[in-house]
Amino acid sequence: MLKTTLFAAALLLGAAAPSAAADAPSDPQIAHIAYTAGTIDIAAAKQALAKSHNKAVRSFAQEMVRDHSAVNAKALALVKKLHVTPQDNPTSDSLTKAATAERDKLSHLSGAAFDRAYVDNEVAYHKTVDGALESTLIPSAKNGELKSLLQTGLTLFREHLAHAEHVAKALR
After folding, report:
1. What angle (nearest 5°) sits at the alpha carbon of residue 139, between those of residues 137 and 141?
2. Which residue, of 15, 39, 108, 156, has the fewest CB within 10 Å?
3. What domain range is 97 assigned to?
4. HSE on the CB side for 22, CA within 13 Å?
């Protein structure tokens, strides 16, 4: 499972990291990447809620659904306010494809094996998304409100990473 996540991480970082300023993602692309990343984590958490019986894993998954849904709602409100249409792009497409493959792999696991694989994936995923937010998406955002929302998201997602690492340690 972690191998797939690392592949997704490479896709995200490779597709999102600009080789030059002209290659930086546009605000509509950034909005789509950020929204897609949240939607992916919501879907993963819903899978965990359907499969896991572990109290800590379920609590973490509920937090992911709650927090990512709230941030995605704020993102949708912002793009509506700004009259911006999020733009599909290779990064968001790669994230979606890798996440679908990961959910498929996780669907064949159960019990402690599922719990460990889900949480390990969450640790790797949050490290990747946090890194992309910090190094590429926030610096590339031109609109101040979008940049602010991304910075707020980064703070929250760093908390998610710490929580995921705590749960992962407890599952060992």
Report:
1. 65
2. 108
3. 2-15+26-171
4. 0
